[in-house]
Design a protein that fits this description.
single chain, 281 residues, alpha+beta, GIY-YIG endonuclease, 2 domains, six-stranded mixed β-sheet, elongated
């Protein structure tokens, strides 16, 4: 089976220069994969709880599913880490500066790596010999995708469940399948606060389609809505990253405002968002 290091052309004598980063979220395993999809993996990786990158190069592998990782690139550590802290969540750590190097960059997000990691360490030396299981240097290429993994094409109104960062990318990149679907329907949508579980029911009617309404949310998180604006004013602008968006019901563009407003009221009653959520009327 083809070894990853053979594809990357990393020689035996160079192993001592590399750390492997098996990037996996502490509470949500898919966090680094999500950061990769929205183009923020490098920045995410540069923030570390400890001084983990004390070698010249980092070989990044991103958790995809059990025993399967995505090649995220090879990075050169270009300076000493500096201490950082985030008072909002009481997080302290170290900020690295890194640079993506020319090492099969065309295969980033395309190489699927098969590796059963039977030890807890997420930052092993590349030449490490574990007590059990396969050595990092022997990681194998499971497959090479035709194109880089990316945010999925629109797969149906009943499957929409995206967070704020993903919404921003969809709108920023004007992803064709999402624009085509959301530009041709009015409807009722749900915004969920992932931190508290509270929900907000909204609607797109009049001359607005869901695409246009959600474009407004992507700009500032509240889209001009007074309840959400008040929440962000109280909690801080970054609180919008706790929001998640889904669609409750889609309606034909020819349906009148009264009908859609009536359906919005129905969903508020069903989900009790006036009593226990973020709707005030």
């Amino acid at each position: 089976m083809l070894k990853l290091l053979d594809v990357l052309k990393i020689a035996e004598a160079e192993l001592k220069n590399y750390k492997v980063h098996f990037a996996i979220g502490a509470t949500d395993k898919m966090v680094p994969y999500h950061k990769f999809l929205i183009g923020e993996f490098k920045e995410w990786q540069e923030g570390q709880t400890n001084k983990n990158f004390h070698r010249p190069y980092v070989l990044s592998l991103i958790y995809y599913k059990k025993d399967l990782w995505i090649f995220g690139g090879v990075y050169q550590v270009t300076g000493k880490p500096v201490p950082i802290e985030n008072p909002e969540d009481n997080w302290k750590g170290w900020k690295y500066t890194t640079e993506l190097i020319e090492c099969q960059t065309d295969l980033i997000g395309r190489i699927m790596v098969s590796y059963k990691k039977e030890y807890r360490q997420s930052y092993p030396n590349l030449e490490m010999i574990p007590e059990n299981g396969m050595r990092p240097r022997d990681m194998c290429v499971s497959s090479i995708l035709d194109k880089r993994v990316s945010i999925n094409d629109f797969v149906g109104f009943d499957k929409v469940n995206i967070d704020y960062e993903t919404l921003q990318v969809i709108m920023r990149d004007n992803i064709p399948s999402w624009r085509a679907a959301l530009s041709n329907v009015k409807g009722i949508y749900l915004i969920a606060d992932m931190k508290t579980g509270k929900q907000y029911v909204g609607s797109a009617y009049g001359d607005e389609c869901i695409w246009q309404r959600w474009s407004a949310y992507a700009k500032d998180g509240h889209g001009g809505n007074q309840e959400l604006k008040a929440l962000l004013s109280e909690q801080g602008e970054k609180y919008k990253y706790n929001f998640k968006y889904s669609i409750l019901e889609v309606c034909n563009m020819n349906l009148g405002n009264d009908y859609i407003i009536g359906r919005e009221s129905y969903w508020k009653e069903v989900l009790q968002t006036r009593e226990f959520g973020l709707n005030k009327n």
